[in-house]
Design brief:
This protein has about 325 residues and is of the alpha/beta class. The chain has 2 domains: about 140 residues, Quinone Oxidoreductase, Chain A, domain 1 (Alpha-Beta Complex), CATH 3.90.180.10; about 140 residues, 3-Layer(aba) Sandwich (Rossmann fold), CATH 3.40.50. It has 10 helices and 15 strands. Helix 1 packs across helix 10 and helix 2 crosses helix 8. The chain binds NADPH dihydro-nicotinamide-adenine-dinucleotide phosphate (NDP).
């Protein structure tokens, strides 16, 4: 292939951003020791921010966006990968500082790749995507803090979003009692179908609250930040823990030390972008065994390459339910 199809974000001297579908010569790909034929990608919140320009996600211009892909190696100078290997990439600055997934070809550092586990197809890998892999990291963080199902309920915020919907599915299959917090109460049936036992309106958590409240849950998976995270912490049971990975409401944390010093609550930070390879492999193997693939299908909307730009706009406007898997 001499040219490949790609989405390209550019900006002019006045920093005005444009997004187009274009053809790029394969020789123009950025440096890397593994070239991949991208088969599937997805739309994460960060991709939405990059394409709409709402946050400074892109730090190299022009940029092929897309922070994750599943594909097949076409060429490799890396000892760990050979032509024909099925691979997954999440993060490591791809789609931010290094050309990313919204293209038929990607050339990356082989140290960023993992082999796609048996039992997960390329499309399923991107139905999961970085949001779902981050949900798994959150569950693993709770487990490492001994938050087992018998400790009490787990609250999941941003329940209808990518992280939230996969977290609900995972926690439910693992035997937890799941409380889903959402602004879309009309999607209650969807959330119950994923395994939510209780559904609360996110307005209960999104306004400034008291430093300590009634103890309601043993742990949480929070994709929302701001007052929501502060209230989740304030209502976590003694010795509980909350895995924080997102900022859909805001990046602030208007909280107090009270949950930490009076109830021994722990705040567990979760980052997927620079997570070590061993952690990624563990997370993806856990997804292969612990995620109900029928539920994954039910929370996934399939789109084509041409739909990616529109879906990226939709996710920033909170219009996407669950996950989106795109065929390149
Ligand atoms: P989505 O857009 O799919 O989901 C976010 C959800 O948050 C929405 O569906 C909505 O859920 C809720 N929400 C949106 N706006 C608000 C608001 N103003 N107040 C309260 N809730 C709100 O995004 P993802 O699930 O893909 O990502 C969630 C967050 O996690 C993002 O901030 C993302 O950047 C971050 N993230 C972080 C990663 C990491 O490595 N730490 C990796 C992946 C994602 P509902 O409609 O149910 O209320």
């Amino acid at each position: 292939m001499s040219n490949f199809k790609a989405i390209l974000i550019s900006r002019d001297e006045e920093k005005k951003q444009t997004v187009e579908i274009t053809e790029i010569p394969e020789d123009d790909l950025m440096e890397g020791d593994v070239t991949v034929a991208v088969e599937h990608t997805t739309v994460n919140y960060k991709d939405g921010l990059a394409i709409t320009g709402k946050s400074p996600v892109v730090r190299h211009w022009p940029m092929v966006p897309g922070i994750d892909f599943a594909g097949t190696v076409t060429d490799s100078n890396h000892a760990g990968f050979k032509e024909g290997d099925a691979v997954i990439l999440n993060g490591f600055g791809v789609g931010e500082t290094h050309w990313g997934a919204y293209a038929e070809r990607a050339r990356v550092n082989g140290d960023w790749l993992i082999k796609r586990p048996d039992g997960i197809s390329a499309k399923q890998a991107m139905s999961i995507g970085t949001a779902g892999y981050t949900a798994m990291l959150c569950v693993m963080a709770l487990e490492s803090h001994d938050i087992t199902p018998n400790r009490g309920p787990i609250i999941v915020t941003g329940a209808n979003g990518g992280v939230g919907s996969v977290a609900i599915s995972l926690l439910s299959k693992l035997g937890y009692h799941v409380i889903a917090s959402t602004g879309r109460m009309d999607e209650a049936e969807f959330l119950t179908g994923l395994g939510a036992n209780e559904i609360i309106d996110r307005n209960e958590l999104s306004e400034p609250g008291r430093p300590l409240g009634k103890e309601r849950w043993a742990g949480g998976v929070d994709a929302v930040g701001s007052h929501t995270l502060a209230n989740v912490l304030a209502q976590t049971k003694y010795g509980g823990a909350v895995a924080a990975c997102g900022l859909a409401q805001g990046f602030d944390l208007p909280s107090s030390v009270m949950p930490f010093i009076l109830r021994g609550v722990s705040l567990l930070g979760v980052d997927s972008v620079q997570a070590p390879i061993a952690v990624r492999i563990e997370a993806w193997n856990r997804l292969a065994s612990d995620l109900d693939m029928a539920k994954l299908d039910s929370l996934t909307t399939e789109i084509g390459f041409e739909d990616l730009i529109g879906a990226a706009t939709d996710i920033v406007e909170g219009k996407i339910r669950g996950r989106v898997a795109a065929t390149i």
